[in-house]
């Protein structure tokens, strides 16, 4: 088992982004606006959109993406069954490397759920 802490990963990334907010404020403001618009509930719920984002994070092998999206999914009340179905699709689309990160997403779920 990996020694990664997804709580620590998300905290570290948030801290590291501080200078970028100051030094590239326009870009960061634009990215934040895009994220807010993309994740707003519409035909798809916020939960559905977060599951899609997690699947992309898994197939992109992005620890930070997994951490932030699982944290939000837990806040939104995702079930383990919803998470597992999403991860199954991510593994189908991403193969073996995605399988390794799907396991990490389950670890993040357990960490943020505790």
UniProtKB/TrEMBL annotation:
GO MF annotation list: peroxiredoxin activity
Coiled coil: none
Domain Carboxymuconolactone decarboxylase-like: 28-107
Membrane-spanning parts: none
Family matches, as NCBIfam families: ahpD_dom
Name of protein: Alkylhydroperoxidase like protein, AhpD family
Classification of source organism: Bacteria, Pseudomonadati, Pseudomonadota, Gammaproteobacteria, Candidatus Competibacteraceae
